Amino acid sequence: MKSLCIDLFKNCSATSLAGTRSSRVLTYRFQRTNYQTHLPSTKLTFSSYSTKTCFATLSAVTSEVEEKQTFNPDKAGELVKELRNSFNSGRTKSYEWRMSQLENIAKMLEEKEKEITEALYKDLSKPEVEAFISEIVTAKSSCNEALKELRQWMIPQKVNTSITTFPSSAEIVSDPLGVVLVISTWNFPFLLSLDPVIGAISAGNAVVLKPSEIAPATSSLLAKLVEEYLDNSAVKVVEGAVPETTALLEQKWDKILYTGSARVGRIVMAAAAKHLTPVILELGGKSPAVVHSDVDLQVAVRRIIAGKWALNNGQACIGVDYIITTKDFAPKLIEALKIELEQFFGKDPMNSRDISRIVSSTQFKRLAKLLDEDKVSDKIVLGGQMDENQLKIAPTILLDIPEESQLMQEEIFGPLMPIVTVEKIEDSFDVINSRPKPLAVYVFTNNEQLKKGFVENISSGGMLINDTVLHVSISGLPFGGVGESGMGSYHGKFSFDGFSHKKAVLYRSFSGDSSLRYPPYTPEKQRLLKAVISGDIFSIILALIGWSK
């Protein structure tokens, strides 16, 4: 880091530099050269008469800064210890504390809507309406539900007891897990950070949020807002990149929720396994949309576009990854997609203000490579335009690309849409089941038997009939994957449950103590014990009077 700091200012002259961000931000921004670099809030003055003097002055100050600013495993350990002390004090467990934090989040969402929208635009050029609906409104809904239902969620669940424990009562108590870690992602950087935090707080935990460094404006805003609105003795944000995340993963947590790729999910799970820490992994995969010929084509196509290009330009784990339809119906489907895409984004979608850009140069180059692969680029039937300077790729449709191509082997996470054709729509079952289980499956048909067949025979995190992505807006439905697309779930009550331990509690008094359970085990006791365990009243009566069946 020291050498990098010096390299940035090789030719410095008499200059005064000041920054505004915290020490945690400094570390990762120096390491990622494609982002604007900030120095900490210390005024540094450089001599103009000598480059050597400049080097020496900066080197001395940098050494001091580096010592103070680096977020390493020791600092991470201190952070976890601080939060665990807060949790052990009992402050996070009370209904009053949980409600106060949720109320502050609701207040934050109302007061800082403009700042949130601006940050999302800086990171993704996300249209204001899309940002409002997909991130702010959804976060508000999650918070409002928790505020409304928290008291009910916290009430222990009564459970029936049996004759073997009579007299007794039993209940399931939702215990906070302790200190939890939420590692968020960049495509919905505000919602996918705040939604799990709402669940963790509702359940009474102390929580650390690690937002994605790939969405730096939103990450910085989250750090600022959490510090301003929430109890910093129990809720903290750690900004940074791989080194900071690695330092956090070396610690012992009571639960980790990670949203992102399967590759990193394996790293998170391996780190968690060292401490036997449970995880919720929200990963993704190739989520297909199956389109039968019996649909209302215009409505179906509009909903597919809404679940692909109007959803962060395809950069969404629940977005439509590819379409399956019959060979006969494909031309009609493609023509309808062309018409509706022009209606949505105009004749030149590259200049549309209603579509997000690609998040980074790295992601842009990855998508361009997928499209430039041999036997892929010549399958484009719509779009394909790119502008690396603006990080924009037009909505692109490809027809029947090779199965072995990377475009069909990995999650696309962008505006490229392959269409796979089959002889009959029922063949789509085999296409989907031949791949890892997806996060979502979308089926467009009016055929009731086909709907039933998909529900019964296709394994996926979620399924939606005749629409896309809206299932995640239903708080009564769990959101999560299966197999390669993830494990565990959250949203609404499922978030509360995901960050709680369901503790089994049995209450008994000192009355009704039977000698039946204690030695010596006489034949009479054995007969009566077997009768009691069987629950057969007639056998119990016979055993009590010394008879047997």
UniProtKB/TrEMBL annotation:
Q: Which PANTHER family match?
A: ALDEHYDE DEHYDROGENASE, ALDEHYDE DEHYDROGENASE FAMILY 3 MEMBER I1, CHLOROPLASTIC
Q: Which reaction does it catalyse?
A: an aldehyde + NAD(+) + H2O = a carboxylate + NADH + 2 H(+)
Q: Which residue stretches, if any, does this entry annotate as coiled coil?
A: 92-122
Give the gene that encodes this protein.
LOC110770067
InterPro entries to which the protein is assigned, alphabetical? Ald_DH/histidinol_DH, Ald_DH_C, Ald_DH_CS_CYS, Ald_DH_CS_GLU, Ald_DH_N, Aldehyde_DH_dom, Aldehyde_DH_NAD(P)
Matching PROSITE patterns: ALDEHYDE_DEHYDR_CYS (PS00070), ALDEHYDE_DEHYDR_GLU (PS00687)
Regarding protein family, the annotation reads: Belongs to the aldehyde dehydrogenase family.
Enumerate the spans annotated as Aldehyde dehydrogenase domain: 68-505
GO cellular component terms, alphabetically, are: cytoplasm
Species assigned in the record: Prunus avium (Cherry)
Q: Its GO biological process terms?
A: aldehyde metabolic process; response to abscisic acid; response to water deprivation
Looking up SUPFAM superfamilies in the UniProt record yields: ALDH-like
Molecular function (GO) terms listed?
aldehyde dehydrogenase (NAD+) activity
What is the protein name given in its UniProt record? Aldehyde dehydrogenase
Name the residues annotated as catalytic in the UniProt entry: E282, C317
* Keywords tagged on the record: Coiled coil, NAD, Oxidoreductase
